[in-house]
Design goal:
This protein has four helices and six strands. It is of the alpha/beta class. It has one domain: Rossmann fold, CATH 3.40.50. It has a six-stranded mixed beta sheet with strand order 3-2-1-4-5-6. The protein is globular. The two termini are about 15 Å apart.
């Protein structure tokens, strides 16, 4: 089992994708990178930690916020990452934060055949 990190930004369909990803796979820990709206409105049956950021901040500030939100919480040297939800700026900030924390990433997605590594 590995930790899951998922971007949870705007888009109802992308929230459904993240919800299925959480539900259909066992994860050691689940971290959702989101804003206040996402924290208040996204519901999941599994225990997930919300890393709440302001997606309107400049990318360098966003990277630092994500990095500080995850620092010391990851359980392995690599994480499962899903960035179906969100914008390019948000994706770049998450990837940069993870790389600066020294972890590798495996991109994960929900397919018609279940959860798959890309």
């Amino acid at each position: 089992m590995t930790d899951l990190i998922a971007c949870l930004s705007s888009g109802e369909k992308s929230w459904a994708h993240v919800s299925r990803l959480i539900k259909e796979q066992e994860w050691k820990k689940i971290f959702l990178i989101t804003n206040d709206f996402g924290r208040q409105n996204f519901k999941t049956e599994k225990n997930a930690e919300f890393i709440v950021v302001d997606f309107q901040k400049p990318v360098f500030e966003l990277i630092e916020d994500i990095k500080s939100g995850l620092k010391g919480k990851l359980t392995d040297l690599e994480v499962a990452l899903n960035i179906v939800s969100g914008s390019g700026k948000e994706h770049m900030a998450i990837l940069s934060a993870l790389l600066k924390l020294g972890v590798g990433v495996r991109l994960m997605a929900v397919t018609k055949d279940g959860v798959k590594e890309l």
